Amino acid sequence: MLSERRLEVLRAIVQDYVGTEEPVGSKALTERHALGVSPATVRNDMAVLEEEGYIQQPHTSAGRVPTDKGYRLFVDRLTSVKPLSGAERRAIGNFLDGAVDLDDVVARTVRLLAQLTRQVAIVQYPSLTRSTVRHVELLALAPARIMLVLITDTGRVEQRLVDAPAPVGETVLADLRARLNSRVVGRRFSDVPPLVQELPEGFEPDDRPSVQVVLATLLETLVEETEERIMLGGTANLTRFGHDFPLTIRPVLEALEEQVVLLKLLGEAKDSGVTVRIGHENFHEGLNSTSVVSVGYGSGDEAVAKLGVVGPTRMDYPGTMGAVRAVARYVGQILAES
Length: 338
Fold this sequence. Notes:
Blueprint: H1 4-20, H2 26-32, H3 39-51, E1 55-56, E2 65-66, H4 68-76, H5 86-97, H6 102-117, E3 120-124, E4 133-142, E5 145-152, E6 157-163, H7 170-184, H8 192-196, H9 208-223, E7 230-233, H10 250-256, H11 259-267, E8 275-278, E9 290-297, E10 305-312, H12 317-337
Helix pairs in contact: 1-3, 2-3, 5-12, 6-12
């Protein structure tokens, strides 16, 4: 374990390198930070930090920069994340409050995160598997054609066209709508199938085939993997950090194009609390020069999806973690009120 003093030296190196983009020397550290020790002691502490793999010397520079291991210790020992200013909090609230539906909420969240952190923002749509049914609507489009609309507690709307084997009267449709909602509203998707299994038996024999087709469409909608949707924004921000990527930015961009990679990245986030993956902790080789800061968001105590940002390892971790956490909290509030 590092002594508190050496940890303080590491913190100072991380802060200076993130702020200046220049390797940090012992002379600069003693001038900029009140470390309370001589430059010789700082040089000795830096030698120990380098020996233990927390900092390294890039090329022939006299200064040192943090390694993935150094950033990890810095993040693990953070006593607090940087709170947003009152103006920033108000701006988040005003921007997200103007959203008209779930697609708009996700699109605004991506833009907001990218602007606040100046990184690449990733937002996952609320997962259907973690959602509950708010309402099922059945609309007659033609005598034998029905529009099924499934609305979730997170404001997500799924629409399906149903071609019934025979014309369905408005009375039967209204009856089915009422019976469906009385059984499934407020229920988890996984709980729905057994609740509607016997519904057709309550209808006249001639109407049962049409009722069964409607129910089959509803159940298909509940189990489809449509929840795995992600929105990405702010990719152009990476061009600001060209020198942070040792060879080329291309592997990062290629990784960000893969939906499966993004889903796995966010999947590593905890439901509560901010998760930080640094450099080689990321499973995808193309992202070994980046850090991923992510968190779960939801309309209640449980997260229904994840959001986060991707940027270079030379990142303002306290500020980024604070922004990601704050935005997730606001999105959760919006979903709860929607």
